[in-house]
Structures are given as structure tokens and as C-alpha cells.
Amino acid sequence: MDKYDCLKLNNQLCFPLYAAAKEVVRKYKPFLDKLDLTYTQYIAMMVIWERKMLHVTELGKKLYLDTGTISPLIRKLKQKNYITLSRDSSDERVQIIEITKEGEALREEALSVPKGMAQSGCINLTLEEACTLKSILEKILGIE
């Protein structure tokens, strides 16, 4: 075994994870273009649809996004009138995201995204394989 084998791309776990993530996001693009959303905006809206109201920091933690990424994301969603942003009355440093009527209406349109992904066979896995992969990825992320 060559001492440089550990530096070969084919021997890395991180590369197929990275490449697969990029490929999946690329396959979402045509469906999200119809909604005028980026993938990051889409996953942010998923959390907002579920929670209705939450702190900006909570959204960042849930999506593994840092402040430099979450701020422009929130600004774009606000410009699209999908959310409002306000300050917490008990702590002015805390910003609260709240979904708007337009944001709720987008949820109905977004139902086409998972349906479209499933029908197009974008991710070539059986249901069992997909569940196993999700479980492994959650283990890597430390999600219980």
C-alpha cells in the first residue's frame, strides 16, 4: 500500500458525498425554477412552513447555515414577501421570522416539487435504499 493512497480521490468518502449532494440539488433546479426558489430557499421555506414562526438563529441551526449565508437568504425571502422579519420584544437582538399569506400559498405550489422529483426518477434508489441512506446521513450529522 502506497503512503499516498489516503490522498487519492477514489479513496475518499467525502467526495462522493459532496458530488451526490451537488447532483441532487442540480436535479431539483428545474422544479424549483418554476417556483422562483433556490434550493436553499426551498429548504428554508420547508422549515418555515412547518414552524410558521421561529428565530433566525433556529433556522440557521436547523439548516446548518452560518450567519453570512442565512442573512441574505432571509433578505431574499422577505423581498419575495414570503416572510416577515421582526424583533423579539423581550430581546431586541433576536429576529423572528413569520410566514406570510404569500408564503403559505407557495406551500401549495411546492407540492409539485417532491412529486416531480419522484416521477422523474431523479434519485435512482429504492425506497429501502433511500431510507437506509437517510439514516446513515443523519448519523453522520448527529441527528437522532
Report on the architecture of this protein.
By secondary structure, the protein is α+β, with helices and mostly antiparallel strands. The chain has one domain (9-109, 123-141): Arc Repressor Mutant, subunit A (Orthogonal Bundle), CATH 1.10.10.10. 61% of the residues lie in helices and 12% in strands. The chain contains seven helices and three strands; from the N terminus they run H-H-E-H-H-E-E-H-H-H. It has a three-stranded antiparallel sheet. A hairpin with a 2-residue loop joins strand 2 and strand 3 (91-99). Helix 1 (14-33) crosses helix 6 and helix 3 packs across helix 4. The protein is globular and about 60 Å long. The termini are far apart.
- Averaging pLDDT over every residue, what do you get? 94
Order of helices and strands: HHEHHEEHHH
Classification by helices and strands: alpha+beta
Q: Determine the CATH topology.
A: Arc Repressor Mutant, subunit A
The dominant shape is: globular
Strand order of the largest sheet: 1-3-2
What number of structural domains do the residues give? 1
Radius of gyration: 18 Å
